[in-house]
Amino acid sequence: MKTIAITLVTLFLSLTSSFGQTSKDSLLVFIGEKIEVKYTPEKPSSDTTILGKDTVITVGLKLDNRYRAKYKILQVINGSFRQDTITFTAYDHYGEPAFSKFKTVLLFVSPHKGELYHEKYQYFDLYLTADNKWASPYSRRYTNDYYKDKVTIRPEKILFKEEVSAPISHLSEDQRKTLFPKPYFDIKNGNAIAIYGNYVDDLIKLQKQTN
C-alpha cells in the first residue's frame, strides 16, 4: 500500500515557485527516484551599506532551509540531462522538502550560475498504474479558487498498481472534505484511497496552469 503524506502547509505552498517563470528550454523536468536528501545548513552572511557618514552592518538571515538532493533519473520529460543521477539544491521555509517524503516524484529543476536548483514547492508524487504508466493522485491544486478559471486539465479515473492512500482519522470532517473530496477519493477504514488522478503529460500542463 502506497501512502500519501499530508501537509496542510503544502496545500498553499505547492502553488508557489521560487524562480517564477522559467523558459521551457532551461527547465529540466524529470521523473526521479530518491537516493538521498540531506540538510546542508548555510552560514549567515553579512552585508555592509554606507549611508552618508554612518555605516550600517546588517547580518543576513537565511529564512529557508537548504537541502542537497540526489535522485536517480528514471525519465527526462523536458530539457536535456545525460547522466543517470542528478544532484541539486532545494530550499524550503518549513524544513525537509515535501517531495523528499516520496520514493518517486516528478520534479522541476532549473540552472542558475552553474548550479541546479529545485523549483520551490513544485513536484508531484508518482505511482505506477496497472498499465505500468506513472500517475499522481488527485491534486490539491484543483481546490485552489485562484486558478479555477485557468485550469483546463481535469482529473480522470486511474487504476493504480498498488493502493495509494492516506490516513485521515486525525483530520476534522471539514479537512477531510477539503483535502480528499469525493468522488476523487474513496473513504474506507480511516483512509482516503485515490480513485482519480493525472498522468505525467497532464501533470505538466497542470503545473504550467497553476504556476
Description:
The two termini are 31 Å apart. By secondary structure, the protein is mainly beta. The longest helix has 10 residues, at 200-209. A hairpin with a 2-residue loop joins strand 13 and strand 14 (191-194). Mean pLDDT is 85; it is low at 6-24 and 48-60. The protein has a five-stranded antiparallel β-sheet, with helices on one face. It has helices at 8-13, 173-179, 200-209, and strands spanning 2-3, 28-39, 46-51, 54-59, 65-78, 85-92, 104-112, 115-125, 127-128, 134-137, 156-157, 164-167, 185-188, 191-194, 196-199.
Order of helices and strands: EHEEEEEEEEEEEHEEEH
Count of helical segments?
3
How many angstroms does the end-to-end distance come to? Answer: 31 Å
Structural class: mainly beta
Q: Quote the beta fraction.
A: 35-45%
Offer a quick outline of the entry.
By secondary structure, the chain is mainly beta.
Topology:
Layout (H helix, E strand, L loop, with lengths): L1 E2 L4 H6 L14 E12 L6 E6 L2 E6 L5 E14 L6 E8 L11 E9 L2 E11 L1 E2 L5 E4 L18 E2 L6 E4 L5 H7 L5 E4 L2 E4 L1 E4 H10 L2
Parallel strand pairs: 1-12
Antiparallel strand pairs: 2-5, 2-7, 3-4, 5-6, 7-8, 9-10, 10-15, 11-15, 12-14, 13-14
Task: From the structure above, extract its key features.
211 residues; mainly beta; five-stranded antiparallel β-sheet; four-stranded mixed β-sheet; 15 strands; globular
